[in-house]
Structures are given as structure tokens and as C-alpha cells.
Design a protein that fits this description.
Structural class of chain A: alpha/beta
Radius of gyration of chain A: 24 Å
Largest interface: A-B, 67 and 51 residues
Number of strands of chain A: 20
Oligomer: heterodimer
Shape of chain A: globular
CATH superfamily of one domain in chain A: P-loop containing nucleotide triphosphate hydrolases
Radius of gyration of chain B: 24 Å
Strand content of chain A: 15-25%
Helix content of chain B: 55-70%
Distance between the termini of chain A: 26 Å
Structural class of chain B: mainly alpha
Shape of chain B: flat
Number of strands of chain B: 2
Strand order of the largest sheet of chain B: 1-2
Distance between the termini of chain B: 44 Å
Number of helices of chain A: 17
CATH class of one domain in chain A: Alpha Beta
Largest sheet of chain A: 6 strands, mixed
CATH architecture of one domain in chain A: 3-Layer(aba) Sandwich
CATH topology of one domain in chain A: Rossmann fold
Number of domains of chain B: 2
Helix content of chain A: 25-40%
Order of helices and strands of chain B: HHHHEEHHHHH
Strand content of chain B: under 5%
Number of helices of chain B: 9
């Protein structure tokens, strides 16, 4: 179905090839998973198979790519698109219309299919992804997981022979992630299609027993069975001794009392009360839309309480301007591109301390040290937007840690990070927490919460429904049926027969959920 | 917080009216308001439009900018009262002289302004822009232009949201919007727009992959699933528009 021979590609302006002498042959109906660290060339390979790489990007290409005997390099994209469908990372970024129906019809209308056939195919595609109930909805109303289901359905409606998923769950919470893998399983069951999944979350792929391709620096370094594939260094489960819990007896640095808050007049938080102490590392988890980001923004004062009170280091956030609060509270947002402002790596790293009048000799020294450790020591004069995604994220963190804020707020900073890059960020934060700072970290990875947090808050419907040390919190989440939020150890112990309540049944990658049994598996 | 000047979902007759019929009313209605020279039909139109707001269930008082245009209409009227000195004098106190001509001009100018604004508001509040784009394409607008409009509609809220995120991220880095000098202003503007630009370019990449990956532009024409047909109400609205247009033109041209 797919034949790639000696494929190399260098993007214009880059000295390093993104792909280097790649050979890959995929048979019809095969299920292939591609993994590897950020920037290893996985997405570039997906773009090459769809033909986009050769038509939409400037660069130097060598080798051959053919799909269903079609020479992809020589044909226009819309010819290749008759065979290859590509589902991208961010569901929202790939929508061309405003409603579910328009979105599903889009590719079919472009192919000049008659309305009757469009309707028939839409119904089929929605049933495959289990989203018939979304047919009459507007896209903006959907959750992240629902949006990604619609994006998959829109591709399926065009009946591609090859379907590529490029990190389809990187923007999704664990519940939605499990949903999407269930959709992939259904596609394997019901449609005759070759599937390629690019994914960091290997645990979710295990039930499919896919053929595994591992890439590194633009090359394929492994191509074989899933079980034999080299695993990325599992730095997240390094299990250093847990940080002492609940601070050191000093007073609370954050006091939140009966907080009601939200953007644009809506309410995302409904009566949140909590206290944080020095030396605490707090993991904040919960489904997208449960109020986590609103909570974190409230702690810096970006969002003022509609009701209740937020006191940070003795200051009411209603009374103190954000710029003053920022001296003691460092916040990093989800998307690194939204928070790089200076013209060079060095200037970006010292931007916050300079603005806050905190740029002294010690801070400069600290910035230099962090940049060296983060592998950015040789790139001080580069423009920050020329860095890779992982490098940008490291620079974001360095720019707030350099002036040593007492409270560190991290909002889903691990999205799209490979394990090594994630571990660097987490180790820096851990050092600061051990030095007496307080970290509040919104994240979706149970292993991270288990290894790096002293306390776990779980949000649901704008309220904190669990607040406990991670181990105890996971037990309670298991009892609530929130399996998607459990680290592998806890899932195993639950499967071993521990009695659990079933308030809400989530899916879990390694579980025996029927829909997750891939084609050809018992 | 007041609602944006944007479509407010509903099921009223005005909501259900064909988007192109509403567009015709918007264009011809505006022309007519400028053609007539008397305040009475203009204020009649204002009254009808207010009834339209009521029937559409659109709450004008809750829409952003409503206070501004009412104030502007009053000011426009006041200027006419102060500066138009025609007809018989009604009031003469020191430098202030109010004449019948002044009052008439005030009623006409303020009414005309209000009628045009209210008509536009009513159109925007009851017309789903997406429906309008599809209706225009069905009526013959080349689909590439139609989708340019749809893409813009889709991305405007996204950029607005991203602007808010960038602004928040800047506050979190201690950036203050204290414009002390033109140079500082340029720096602030660059620091604000650069992240937005980078993000926009990324979005354009994703969107073009998504569009081309679904054969957008493969053929000069495409089919449409949406069947936007003219109903009896639509034809009625067109008939009324023709009558109003003809009578208005005959009487006031």
C-alpha cells in the first residue's frame, strides 16, 4: 500500500535533515504505530505520505514515496487525498466549517458527490466514531474529544484507503484519549483501511499489537513487533523519594475560600476552597472544562473572584495588580508559542526578571546555568520561535524559574513533550519545591502526579472532588470509576479484584474494554 | 457583560427568513431610508424595526453598543436643532434659537441614523453568517470566496481568544502596558503581535493541510448538501419589499 524508499528531506533554512534515508513498506490493512522523541521526523513522515511535504513546504527532497502505486511526489495533493486521510493533532485547527454536518460534508461536496450519497456516508462515518448524537451540533459547542471524533468522522466519510493519525490525543484529557483509541479500534473492526498512528502514549497502543516503527533524528531505528520495540527512557517513573508532604509547618502561601470564577460572565468554578503550603507540589487533574485552568489563573489574579476570596502570600488578588503578583507567582500557559516575546533566547530568559526589576547578578548566573542544563547554552542569540517545541517549553520554564518565584503554576506544560523533555521540566520544578517553593501543576499524566506531586486535586464540574496525597487520591479515583486517571500500577491492582464502586466507568488503555480489542485479536 | 454584536440563535420568522431575502431588505431598506425626505416614514420604519426586534426576541438593550448609537442619534438631532434655522421660531433664549425646520431636520437625521443602525442590527442578530455564506455560494458566489468568508468567521473568535491568552501571558511576565514613548509602544506591539502571528501561521498550515486533504479546489464547482429553498414567507417578504420600494421611489424620488 505504501512504499517509501530512501526518503530524505531537509526543510529550507535548516541544516539538519528532518528525514534521512527512510525506508518503509506498509501492506494493505496493516496497523503501524510510529513513535520517537519530539522532532524525530514522525510528523514529517506523515506529511510525506499525504504528499503535503512536497507541495506545501520548501526544502530538499530525495528518494521515492508511493501510495497505492501512485507517485506521491508527482501528483497534486487532492489526488493523493483520494487515498490518504490525515487526522492532525489539534482537532480545532483542522476544521474548515462551523457545524458538524458541514464539516462531514465538506470533503464529499468537494468531490462533487450528490446530496443523497453525502447523507449516507455521513451517517456511516458518524456511526463508526460513535457520534451520531452530534450530527446537529455546532462545532464550537463540542468538547475536545468530541471535536476529534468529528475530525476522524470527516476523514472516514471520504473513505480513504490509508488513515494517518498524527498524535490525535495530545490535546485531550485521559477520558477523551481513551475514547479516541476506542474509535480507532472500531475503525479497525468495521472499515477496510490501513492505519498509521503516530503516538507518544504507547500504553494505549498495546491492545492493537501494532507493527512498531521507532524514529530518531529523522531515521527509522526500529521496525518490528510492538513488544520488542525499544521503550523510551521512562524517566517519569524514576520514583525519587517523595517530597515531604504538606509543607514544613509554615503558614499557607495560598488561601482560596469559596471561590466562584469564570471567563466572560460564565462560571467555571463553583465554591472552591483550598490551602497550599511551602514545599508542596500539587497536581491538578480533571477532564477538560472542569475548571482547572480557571483555578490556576485565579491564583495569579488574572481572573478575579466573582464570589469568595483568593489570598496569595497574604495579598487579596482583587487588591493587587497582576504585574506585582507576578514577582512571587510564576505561571506558564499551555501553548509555548503564545508566550515567547523577545528577539533572542537570552532576552526571553531574562524578560520576566527584567520587567519585574529582579535581574541581578545571581539571577543572570541562574539563567545561564538553566540554559546550559536545558541544552540552550549554544543558542543564546537564536530567535525563540526558531526553537523546537520542546526547547521552547524549556525556555518558558527557565524564564519564570530564573527569578525564583515562591509559587510556580504550570498549566498542562507536558503536552507534546517526549519523556526526556518532560523529565527535564519536572526535575527543575522538583528542585524548586525542595527549596521551599510551592508548585501547582495541571497535568493529564497519572504517572507524573504519582512521581512528582505530594498532593493531588481532582476537579469535576468546577469543584474539587478529591484532595489527598497521590496514592490515596488514586484509590478514591478508582472507587469513583475514573480509571483513565489511574497510573498503571493502580489499574493492575484494580483488575486483580479490588472491589470498586462504579459511579462512572471510564475506559482504560490496557483494560479489557470490548471496543479496544483490535481486529484479529481474541 | 453585554452580548457581542453577533447572531443570536432563535426560531422567529425573521430567523427563518432566507438569508438572501434579508440581505435584499438590508440593502434596499438602507437605500430607501436615504431616498425619502420626510421624517414620518423614517420614524415609521424605526417603529416597525422595533416591532421586528420584539418579534425576533432580540434584546437590543443587552447588545454591546446600543447605548452608544442611541446617544449618537440624540447628538445628531441636537446639532440639527442648534444649527438649522428654518421655518417659524419656537423658542429664542439668548444664543439658542429653536425653529420648526430645526426640529424637523433633527427628527429626520436622528430617525434615519436609527433606522439604518437598527436594520443592520436586526440583520446581524437574526442571520447566521454561516447560512449567509452558503446561501451566497448557492446563489453563484464562487465557492473559494464563500469559504474565505467561512474561514474568517471561524478564526475570528479563535484569534480573539488567543489575543487574551497572549495578553495574560504578558501580564504574567511582568509586561505592563505603560506606553511611555513611541519606541516602547512599538516594542509592546511587536511583543503582542509576534506570538499571534506565529500561531496564525501554524493555523494556516493545519487548515491548508485539512482543506487540500479533503480535495478542496479539485474541481471548479462543487455540490452542496444544504438545500436552502425559498418558502412562502420568503416570497411574501420579497413581494412586500418590492411594493415598499416602488411606492417609496414613486413618492419621494
Amino acid at each position: 500500500m505504501i512504499a517509501i524508499e530512501g526518503l530524505s528531506f531537509s526543510f529550507a533554512g535548516s541544516t539538519r535533515p528532518a528525514l534521512h534515508d527512510v525506508d518503509l513498506h506498509v501492506a494493505p490493512g496493516e496497523f503501524v504505530a510510529i513513535a520517537g522523541p519530539s522532532g524525530c521526523g514522525k510528523s514529517t513522515l506523515a506529511l510525506a505520505i499525504g504528499g503535503y511535504l512536497f507541495r506545501q513546504y520548501e526544502g530538499q527532497a530525495g528518494g521515492r514515496v508511493s501510495v497505492a502505486s501512485m507517485d506521491v511526489q508527482q501528483r497534486p495533493i487532492h489526488d493523493v487525498a483520494e487515498i490518504v486521510g490525515l487526522v492532525q493533532q489539534n482537532p480545532e485547527a483542522q476544521f474548515c466549517t462551523l457545524t458538524v454536518q458541514d464539516e462531514l460534508a465538506f470533503g464529499l461536496e468537494n468531490r462533487r458527490l450528490p446530496p443523497d450519497e453525502i447523507c449516507e456516508r455521513m451517517g456511516w462515518a458518524l456511526s463508526i466514531v460513535g457520534a451520531e448524537h452530534l450530527a446537529d451540533r455546532s462545532l464550537v459547542e463540542l468538547s475536545g474529544g468530541e471535536k476529534q471524533k468529528v475530525a476522524v468522522a470527516a476523514m472516514m466519510a471520504t473513505k480513504p484507503q490509508v488513515l494517518i493519525f498524527d498524535e490525535p490525543t495530545s490535546n485531550l484529557d485521559p477520558t477523551a484519549t481513551a475514547d479516541i483509541f476506542e474509535v480507532i479500534a472500531r475503525i479497525r473492526e468495521k472499515a477496510d483501511v490501513t492505519v498509521i498512528v503516530i503516538e507518544h502514549k504507547l500504553d494505549y497502543l498495546r491492545p492493537f499489537a501494532p507493527r512498531m516503527v521507532v524514529m530518531e533524528s529523522g531515521r527509522i531505528v526500529y521496525d518490528g513487533p510492538f513488544e520488542g520495540a525499544p521503550r523510551p527512557p521512562d524517566l517519569l517513573s524514576r520514583q525519587s523519594p517523595p517530597i515531604p508532604a504538606t509543607g514544613d509547618g509554615r503558614g499557607a502561601v495560598v488561601r482560596v475560600e469559596d471561590l466562584h470564577a469564570g471567563y466572560d460572565g460564565t462560571r467555571a468554578l463553583h465554591g472552591v476552597s483550598v490551602e497550599f503550603h511551602p514545599g508542596e507540589s500539587v497536581a491538578v487533574m480533571g477532564d477538560n472544562g472542569s475548571g482547572k485552568t480557571t483555578f490556576v489563573h485565579s491564583l495569579l489574579g488574572l481572573l478575579k473572584p466573582q464570589q469568595g476570596r483568593v489570598e496569595v502570600l497574604g495579598h487579596d488578588t482583587r487588591q493587587v495588580p497582576v504585574s506585582r503578583m507576578a514577582r512571587q507567582v510564576g505561571l506558564i500557559f499551555q501553548n509555548p508559542d503564545h508566550q515567547l516575546f523577545a528577539d533572542s533566547v537570552w532576552e526571553e530568559a531574562v524578560l520576566a526578571p527584567r520587567n519585574l526589576d529582579l535581574l541581578d547578578g545571581r539571577t543572570r548566573q541562574l539563567v545561564e546555568e538553566y540554559l546550559q542544563r536545558g541544552g540552550l547554552g549554544q543558542r543564546l542569540d537564536d530567535h525563540p520561535h526558531r526553537l523546537s517545541y520542546g526547547e521552547k517549553r524549556r525556555l518558558n520554564l527557565i524564564s519564570i524559574l530564573s527569578y525564583d518565584p515562591q509559587i510556580i503554576l504550570l498549566d498542562e506544560v507536558l503536552i507534546g513533550q517526549d519523556p526526556a523533555s518532560a523529565a527535564f521540566l519536572l526535575e527543575l520544578v522538583r528542585e524548586r519545591v525542595e527549596g521551599g517553593s510551592t508548585a501547582v501543576m495541571v497535568n493529564h499524566a497519572p504517572q507524573v502526579s504519582q512521581a512528582y506531586a505530594t498532593r493531588l486535586l481532582f476537579f469535576d464540574g468546577g469543584q474539587i472532588v478529591v484532595d489527598a496525597p497521590p496514592d490515596e487520591a488514586f484509590d478514591r479515583l478508582a472507587a469513583m470509576g475514573r480509571d483513565a486517571y489511574l497510573p498503571p500500577g493502580k489499574v493492575a491492582s484494580k483488575a486483580a479484584g479490588a472491589p470498586m464502586a462504579t459511579a462512572r466507568q471510564d475506559k482504560r488503555p490496557a483494560s479489557a474494554t470490548p471496543g479496544l480489542v483490535p481486529k484479529g485479536q481474541p | 457583560m453585554k452580548a457581542r454584536i453577533t447572531y443570536q440563535p432563535g426560531h422567529s420568522f425573521l430567523h427563518r427568513l432566507h438569508p438572501l431575502v434579508k440581505t435584499a431588505w438590508l440593502v434596499l431598506g438602507t437605500v430607501l431610508v436615504f431616498v425619502v425626505h420626510s421624517p414620518w416614514p423614517v420614524w415609521g420604519a424605526v417603529a416597525l424595526l422595533l416591532v421586528g426586534f420584539f418579534l425576533a426576541g432580540a434584546r437590543l438593550g443587552q447588545v454591546r453598543g446600543s447605548r452608544l448609537f442611541v446617544t449618537t442619534a440624540l447628538l445628531l438631532g441636537l446639532l440639527q436643532v442648534l444649527f438649522v434655522q428654518e421655518g417659524s421660531t419656537l423658542l429664542d433664549i439668548g444664543p439658542l434659537t429653536v425653529t420648526t425646520g430645526g426640529l424637523q431636520a433633527a427628527a429626520y437625521v436622528a430617525g434615519r441614523f436609527l433606522a439604518v443602525i437598527l436594520l443592520s442590527y436586526l440583520f446581524v442578530l437574526t442571520t447566521e453568517p454561516n447560512d449567509l455564506a452558503y446561501a451566497l455560494m448557492r446563489a453563484g458566489l464562487p465557492y473559494r470566496y464563500g469559504f474565505a468568508l467561512i474561514t474568517a468567521l471561524r478564526l475570528v473568535p479563535t484569534f480573539e481568544q488567543e489575543g487574551q491568552i497572549v495578553y495574560n501571558a504578558q501580564l504574567a511576565r511582568g509586561i505592563e502596558y505603560d506606553v511611555r514613548s513611541p519606541r516602547r509602544f512599538v516594542t509592546l506591539a511587536r511583543q503582542f503581535f509576534m506570538p499571534l502571528l506565529v500561531s496564525a501561521l501554524g493555523r494556516v498550515d493545519s487548515l491548508s493541510v485539512s482543506m487540500e486533504g479533503r480535495c478542496f479546489g479539485k474541481y471548479p464547482e462543487r455540490t452542496f448538501l444544504r438545500q436552502v429553498r425559498m418558502g412562502a414567507g420568503d416570497w411574501g417578504a420579497v413581494a412586500v419589499l418590492i411594493v415598499v420600494g416602488v411606492v417609496g421611489t414613486l413618492v419621494y424620488w
